[in-house]
Amino acid sequence: MARLLTPIETIAVLLPAFVANASPVLLQKKGKPLDRGAVFIDGRPLLGAGKTFEGLLIGLAYGSTIALLFSAIIGSFSIALLGTLSSLGGLAGDILGAFVKRRLGLERGAPAPVLDQLDFYSGALIALYLAGIRLDIVTVLVLALLALILHKTTNMVAYKLRLKDVPW
Ligand code: CTP
Ligand code: MG
What we know:
The chain is mostly helical. It has helices at residues 7-22, 53-74, 77-103, 115-130, 137-160; strands at 3-4, 133-134. The protein is globular and about 45 Å long.
């Protein structure tokens, strides 16, 4: 049976995906590409060098840590599991986003407005939906707006910290 989350629970299970999505930038472009340099039938990289095993692990580690923290605050262990699931969904969405970007002929790191900001968020939502979780719709929309705004801010911060070469 589907479970409907409160606004607070909705935030608690979605914010870990934000952290999971943002943390791989700490790798500073190191890491083994998930696609191992594979090329798709269009002659372009399958995913490109911006999606790595290490990035996946860092994202999962940070995302699940935040999920555990929120679950402790709320006092429900299922929040930790759902936050980890949403982090995994977010990381998968980001990978799918990279696949789409490569098919559009965009180089690794090239900006793709909306797709860049919402690929991980959609992935997180789909993962939770498939697990039978129904979220508070107003909170989902507010966090989508936050994703659109935060992406610009965090990328600018990462650029200033020299973690990224470009401010987007
Ligand atoms: N990253 C990683 N592994 C992942 C996701 C991200 O190593 N699974 C790292 C990469 O160094 C990447 C950086 O985090 O460059 C920022 O992530 P993102 O902005 O999603 O990648 P882009 O550089 O924009 O690459 P793409 O165009 O493929 O999205
Ligand atoms: Mg991206």
